[in-house]
Amino acid sequence: MKDRHSFRYRAYDYRRNGAYHIVICSHERKNVFGRIRGGAMQLNRFGRIVEEEWRLSGEKRAEITLDSFVVMPNHVHGLVFIARLDDQTLEEPPETSVVAPASLGAFVRGFKAAVTKRIGEERGQQLSCGKGFTSTESSATKRNSKTRGVTSKIIRRSGKTTNSTRKTPRRRGVACYPQNLTGYRGRSTLRPYERATHRMRWHESLSPWHFMIEKIPFGRTGHLSTRTIFGAAALGGVTQDEADATLETLLEYGVNHIDTAASYGAAEDRIGPWMREHRGDFFLATKTNERPYAKAREQIHRSLERMRVTQIDLIQLHSLGDPADWEKAMGEGGALQAVLEARDEGLVRFIGVTGHGVKIAGLHLRALEIADFDSVLLPWNYTMSQNETYAAEFWELVAKCRERDVAVQTIKGVLRRPWGEIDRTATTWYQPLEEQRDLDNAVSWVLGHEGLFLNTLGDIHILPRVLEAASHPQEVSDEAMRVMLGEREMAPLFV
Fold first, then answer.
1. Exposed end of the chain (fewer CB within 10 Å): N or C?
2. pTM (whole model) above 0.85
3. What domains, with CATH codes, occur in the chain?
């Protein structure tokens, strides 16, 4: 590619015998390969792929011998020995930026390409890396072209370290070979089996962690939340092992906001073990469905105990879609008094209100006049947008929230229709869309509305597909949504 520049030192032949210490960092050093728990590295599915491909990459190359290798949360490093019989008879390397065959650069390139391909297949993405793969470039990546620096560090036997930082323009989202190795400072000083360290990034279009979910301010809370919030109702009926695997999925996609509720079965209990190590990684929200003050206060304290935390970021009045319930919770001696008291005591930081049904937008507008809520939550999807009355009240509420800097969370974004009499294939209380193409459309449609958050559905098995859709939202036309509405026989949940 015309705008690519090689940082390899052209005076040195990277096919030469030697011992090389290679360090490869993830893009922006994000923790994508696993986590450290109890002083030990625990690989996730991406980390296990990296570990396996390292071994396979050495087995495929006769001139390469691999030694120690370690996968860490945001980088991998290991020792690579090149020991070839014809080392003294090699022809001079050509003055070109192309990585020479059977060289250190070729080994690294092949290793990264193999990892990228497998992780791309795992996540169902169409990634590219030179020949043999299809190039994809989204409009979002085209808009984000920028210059990035690549830093190299060279460690010689003498103990001296030389750092060099240079910049090269790199187009994001474009198929190309991985970044070339940064070269050594002087061929004459390098001897066989001297150590050299290289730091490099996978090219962003190839990196499985490139598509991280966008973060925006969560209202006036000061927290930058992922636009896709984890709906922890999905944890209500799962084992702790299943919950822990779900946590790994959240971390892989960069999700940093959890929304649960006291009434979501065992969800708060499943979240508790995470908080010991990950409390600082998540904005933690829960809900109380009690209406009287005393019961709501008791439930808030129990939520703190179940999740093993001393403070909750957001407490919400849960499911205030019924006018009678609304009056009990908002009136004197109601749950509102309990959440305000919890905020004053420092047990919670912010307060919110949630609800279902076609009247909920109007009730939320009333709630904002009674108390200074920091967030609201209500249904929003393409099907509900066809209800003109609901849509008008929804956008009136959104306008009021923008005026007051109140976060707007949406639920039921991937609704297909009520279950009816058909067999249930998911743990949600409505039938969700399940095909990736349909989820891409539904999720992209919600996220296409500026400033809205999408809370995920209550099924851990469909969750990764929703996060995948949220990690690269696309423009979706009304015509495409209308076609899907008909093909999938979509129907409203609330009428």
1. C
2. no
3. 18-206 (3.30.70.1290), 215-487 (3.20.20.100)
